Amino acid sequence: MKVSYNWLKEYVDITATPTELANKITLTGIEVEGVSRLADGLKKLVVGYIETAKPHPNSDHMTICQVNIGAADLTQIVCGAPNVAAGQKVIVALPGARIAGNEKIKKGKLRGEVSNGMICALQEIGFSNDIAPQSYDTGIYVLPADAKVGEPVFPYLGMDDAVLDLAITPNRADAMSMHGVAYEVAAIYGKDVHFPETTLTEDPDSQIADYLTASVVNATDAPSYNLRVIKDIKIQPSPLWLQKRLWNAGIRPIDNIVDVTNYMMLTFGQPMHAFDYDQMASKQIAVRRATANEPFTTLDGEERTLTPDDIVITNGDVPTGLAGVMGGLDSEITPKTKTVVLESAIFNPTLIRKTAQRYNLRSEASSRFEKGTNKGIVLQVLDAAAALMAELGDGKVVSGVVSPTHLAATPVNVTVTQAQINHKLGTTITIPEITKIFQQLHFDVTEDQGTFNVSVPTHRWDIAIAADLIEEVVRLYGYDRIPATLTASASTPGILTANQRLMRQIDQQLEGSGLSQAISYALTTPEKAQAFNLNAAWQPTSVDWPMTQDHQTLRMSLISGLLDDLAYNVARKQTNVALYEQGRVFVKDDADQTRPAEVEHLAGAVTGIWQAASWQQKEQAVDFYGLKGIVEQLLHNLHLNDGIQYVATETRRNMHPGQTADIYVGETLVGFMGQIHPQVAQQNHLAATFVFELDMTQLQALAATPVVYQPVAKYPAVTRDIALLVDRHVQHQAIVAAIYAKGGAFLQDVTLFDLYEGHHVAPGKKSLAYTLTYQNANDTLTDDQVNQAFEKIKKLVVSEFNAEIR
Predict the structure, then answer these.
(1) 737 within domain boundaries
(2) Is-contact 352 370, C-beta < 8 A?
(3) Which tens digits make up the pLDDT trace of 458-517?
(4) What pLDDT score does 489 carry?
């Protein structure tokens, strides 16, 4: 349920910010999944007035508009929308504006004519096709005449309104309406609700009996079924205030009749349906079960084969609606509709749920019928909807209501005692406190010696027994106020520190990558202690009275110990070894420092064959890129804010000068990786061996982003391949970083799939081939969008890397 903050404030006097309100609602039992605004991420969108519009001389579909945006001079904008015309007030994106998809608007030329901005459709400023008004599907949106030129468009479109997304559980279907949420918020803050009164004026010269009659074959299928008729209706777009409330709630405006039915559903939680009276071809409406294999075409144009478990609305014979789920194509409201039959009913929730599931037609209406609606306001909603339709459509409400069945809903009386409440909750809530809570909930309550007789109004049909009242008391009393108690034999629970949790995660990842954990001595020889220092300026620490000459200096790197472990295994014919170690190194920044600093490090070493040969694959030796993949995945899982770079280096002693890279996070050196020098490998009787070492103390101190779930994109990705011929010294990492920086808002991934040096490639050159993946989480990408972004990347690699595109 999407709740408009501004709309809610019309019903309850609240001063809390939307975020504060969301937190308060969540604490009292209804989770708020998020607070958002349609204007989030957008800027420099203003109201413009089109003074003149003339055809583009070099285009058969573009228009050159002179637009007043509140500046001294008119602004020329070229627009391709078919409905653009002089005299309109429109949405203008100024140069420098940000519109949907984080796209930036710039000055430019279209077919030789200057265009200083953009006249926008709603979809171009973030509205999805599901909520943008149907009448503006193929063109720009026209603002109302009272919109002030030069002012931001967000207030006019309701885009500055905060929308709270409530995750409604099945037991709280009362909160699937603005009135229900208003009652909830009023109870939380101890406020009153104030809903506007409905004034219905009936036409004295017409009676509903002259228009139609109705019958319900089985009252259990539709225990309350009520109809009104509105005549002389003019079908037209709804006023902007109504459209704003619908699209902020995630519902698409259609016209003034359909919109009113949806508006009433949002306001009261009561689904409604409107039929075109003239298309029904009968004055008789009958509610019955469908016959076996009875055909019916729903509003979506699909023909369904019905079963006897479906409830249908008929014109006396032929179905015109699938009750509580979807109307029929033959009776839908069209621009030609003059007379409307309006339905407000209660249907059997079990049958509605099964019908919606059977035909995969779950909707906002069926969801509410399944979970329950307020039985006490069915006729009130019918009157309110009829009055609003007549007002918005310049029509008249025919006198009278047809109600073949009617349900007289009355408050439910439930009794609970103070002793029951405090026994269940372990509290000592007083009688005045309990009474106040029930009054905040707008329940009528009387108390006699600790016994509460509570009259629950019809808008809280979820409350029926004493346990329900106890739940209401604890919600508003505050879960955080319930006293915490320990069991008599309570023990101290063990917990892991943040560092311990992180290292356990790293252990799992490295072991999953095929490495085994090793533990080495912290004391080693002076030569080995300094062999693979991360920082060449570090000074060693030696003990005064070593037990042996091989254990006299504290290690400053873990790699030497891992190489000893590899040599030990290789000497015993275990030539394919992959090890990692997590531990402390001991470093001093200055030789005069008395006590060394203890720093957490993580290192790995692999040698031999990484992938054994089999009938379906060749043997694969350990190489630089295999180890780099393990390190990359490890660092990726830390979710660091700053970018990670691998910078080639030839300065590290004991490392191969052509296959070694320093690892930076932002500007911070956090480690290195690569192949050990062949001479060092030979001294340890090892084949080609690759190692890495990371400063975990540094990494844990860097800023990281919490992991936040991102929904799987509903729209397909688009890929483009590009092959580049560049100088041999150009780094792959630099190319990828540049592509990401200039790739546009929809670039999701850059993958290297081919590297070639040799025949057919000039000396000193190499060929790199990449796959670029584009995806828009909110809409389907067009070829033009992808091609424009791809062309920018082509120009980028040519200009920055002197690349030749193959």
Answers:
(1) yes
(2) yes
(3) 999 999 999 999 999 999 999 888 888 766 655 667 788 888 888 899 999 999 999 999
(4) 59
Half-sphere exposure of 260 (CA within 13 A, CB side): 28
> Could you tell me the CA-to-CA distances from 303 to 67, 286, 297, 322, 329 in Å, in that order?
48, 21, 4, 12, 10
Residues 425, 381 within the same domain: no
* Residue 421 belongs to domain spanning: 412-481
Spell out the residues 6+ positions from residue 554 whose beta carbon is closer than 8 angstroms to its own.
522, 523, 529, 540, 541, 542, 543, 585, 586, 596
- Pairing mode, strands 284-289 and 213-216: parallel
Which residue stretches of the chain have pLDDT < 70? 486-492
28 shares a domain with 47: no
Question: How far is residue 690's CA from residue 769's CA, in Å, rounded to a whole number?
Answer: 26
Cα end-to-end distance, the chain, whole Å: 52
What residues form DSSP beta bridges with 692? 604, 673
Rounded distance between C-alpha atoms, residue 604 and residue 291, angstroms: 72
Q: Is 468 annotated as a binding residue?
A: yes
Whether 207 is in a domain gets the answer yes
What pTM, to 2 d.p., does this model score?
0.61
471 is in an annotated binding site: yes
CB 309 within 8 A of CB 355: yes
Alpha-carbon dihedral angle through residues 213, 219, 222, 224, given to the nearest 10 degrees: 70
Helix, strand, coil percentages, rounded to 5, for the chain: 30, 30, 40
The two structure tokens encoding residue 410: 């009355």
Residue 492, in any domain of the structure: no
Residue 232 is labelled as binding a ligand: no
Please give the C-alpha separations between residue 250 and each of 158, 160, 502, 658, in angstroms, as whole numbers: 13, 15, 41, 57
290 secondary structure, DSSP code: P
Query: Which residues neighbour 200 within 8 Å (Cβ) at sequence distance 6 or greater?
Result: 383, 384, 386, 387, 397
